[in-house]
Amino acid sequence: MKKHSDYSWIHHVGDISYADDASVKIEPSSGSGYDEVYDLFQDSLQDITSSTPYMVSPGNHDVTCRVTSDLGCPKQQRNFSAFRQRWRMPSIESGASTVEHHNVWYSYRVGNVHFVSIDTESDFPNAPTKPTTKIGGGAGGGFGDQLSWLKSDLQAANSDPTIDYIVAMGHRVFYSSSLTDWPLNAVKHVSSAFEPIFKDFNVDLYICGHKHFYERGSPAYNNKPVERGLVQIVNGAAGCNEGVQGEGKGKGHHLIVKGNYEDTGYGELEVREGEMVWRYVLSEGGGVDDEVVIKSKRS
């Protein structure tokens, strides 16, 4: 595995510490409190985060202190509070909010690439997390008009002649081989909210997680292969206390051109002269398990 100093920055697409799983006794740190587990996770990252930018997107395990609901969680551990207070993302700088530690959606630029981080948990129609949510992560949201901001941000990026690629990051998938998700129809609602916007503003690549495996899809739109469509990478196999997930036969199975359902690994994105290359690298041994050149929609 390469050293973190070999990378310009790191982006973690949700489920940052799995501290909410501590209450269900499925990890070595079970029995410790939510904040204690989060402390352990962040302490383990200090050598990296002290020298390399570490960007985060919210996932379903970042909503509240228990994976099942808000029950037993004090107010200061609900509604993405740990995610928002423990990190500092450029929401203000990218016009996503005027509130310090907004964090849940934002954008940034590195060289000739525009990156946008979305919140697939809240603040869009039929979002998994709403102020009225009782189970499956707790109540949350109310951080602003995410979709209006996203359209404005991507419109500006798409109109900028110095930007060659647009890459989006979020937690939940638009499609995958998985048969089920929670809440029911979450995949449909997430893709309905974001995929048309990505199409309208020529997003080249969507990197997500949530499913604990690796899958790369063919260029697609609305669950169908489309020439010059959006390429989706599901990289939820970095490793966690819940283990690696097996292949399913869900509605998106026909779009998968490469999958790994056994190994943990991480992604690399390299931008070189005239092209952007994605790689999936195995944690054990550092071998490249998948590699693809992403073509710009602006070329």
Automatic annotation (TrEMBL):
InterPro entries: Calcineurin-like_PHP (IPR004843), Metallo-depent_PP-like (IPR029052), MPP_PAP (IPR041792), PAPs_C (IPR025733). It comes from the Eukaryota. Signal peptide: none annotated. Coiled coil: none annotated. Keywords: Glycoprotein. Residues 230-291 form the Purple acid phosphatase C-terminal domain. The keyword Glycoprotein applies. One of its GO terms (molecular function) is hydrolase activity. Residues 5-213 form the Calcineurin-like phosphoesterase domain. The keyword Glycoprotein applies. This is Acid phosphatase. It comes from Triparma laevis f. inornata.
